[in-house]
Amino acid sequence: MSVTSISIVGSFRRHYHQVVAAAEVFELAGISVRSPSVSRIVNPGEDYVRFESDPPTCSDLTIQRATLGKILTSDVVYVVSPGGYIGRTTSYELGRVHQCGIPVYFSEPPLDLPIEVDQDAVTEPEALARLLSSKARIGVMVS
């Protein structure tokens, strides 16, 4: 199985510009970004981040469920974690991702996350995009 899709998680409230930059790197490398769909945050200052691309009639919970579905059907998950911060919701998402056995990579080692993170799983988006693209070319799944 080759790597064709990735989801990016992290604190969108705190680090959305880094999330967008990572998404651009992966898309340029031909890797489909399943989540988030990059668009403008429409509710600055609110607890739950909503995007211009989110259906306005859907509840936060409905959007979160759909997002988790995209994350759990991605080949790989990339965590934007400047300073090690990932946020509460991301911690929950990563628990499910870990449970499903989906490979996870981090921009920086996470703080206060009760899973072992191999140093090889800490990488910049450009290096990960090269790795995933090379694995896709030879048809090998990253683990």
Structure description:
40% of the residues lie in helices and 13% in strands. The protein contains 4 helices and 4 strands, in the order βαβαβαβα. It has 143 residues and is of the alpha/beta class. The protein has one domain: Rossmann fold (3-Layer(aba) Sandwich), CATH 3.40.50. A 4-stranded parallel sheet has the order 2-1-3-4, with helices on both faces. The longest helix has 17 residues, at 12-28.
List the uncertain runs.
Answer: 138-143
Instruction: Report Rg.
Output: 14 Å
Let me know the largest β-sheet.
4 strands, parallel
Mean pLDDT, all residues: 88
What's the CATH class label?
Answer: Alpha Beta
| Helix coverage percent | 25-40%
Order of helices and strands: EHEHEHEH
The total of helices stands at: 4
Morphology: globular
CATH architecture: 3-Layer(aba) Sandwich
Q: Based on DSSP secondary structure assignment, what is the total number of beta strands? A: 4
Number of domains: 1
End-to-end Cα distance = 11 Å
Q: Please report which band the strand proportion falls in: under 5%, 5-15%, 15-25%, 25-35%, 35-45% or over 45%.
A: 5-15%
Class from secondary-structure proportions: alpha/beta
The order of strands across the largest sheet is 2-1-3-4
CATH third-level topology: Rossmann fold
Please give the structural blueprint.
Blueprint: E1 5-10, H1 12-28, E2 32-35, H2 60-72, E3 76-80, H3 88-100, E4 104-106, H4 125-138
Parallel strand pairs: 1-2, 1-3, 3-4
Give a concise summary.
The protein is built from 4 helices and 4 strands. With 143 residues, the protein is of the alpha/beta class. It has one domain: Rossmann fold (3-Layer(aba) Sandwich), CATH 3.40.50.
